[in-house]
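Check this.
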Amino acid sequence: MADDTKKIQAHVFIHGKVHGVSFRTNTVDEALRTGVFGWVRHYGEGLEAIFEGDEEKVKYMVNWCKAGEPPAKVDHIDVTLGEYSGKFNYFGIEDDV
């Protein structure tokens, strides 16, 4: 039986108090629990992440990024939804930009 679940990618920039509050580590933990692939890293004053997988799971992670976990304080996020690439088989922390 074929898997009819739509797969997508979300490229996310997270702005706010997201450095020094374990946001990257918490994102990895939540992504692994959710079952999406990609990465997260520091990007300037914020964070950047790629989430790939089932559309519902990716959208969950995008919504999760809008708040994160205390003591993080997200001001806003920028999201670009795109086509699933299938090139990731893990979720982890990438080198910072």
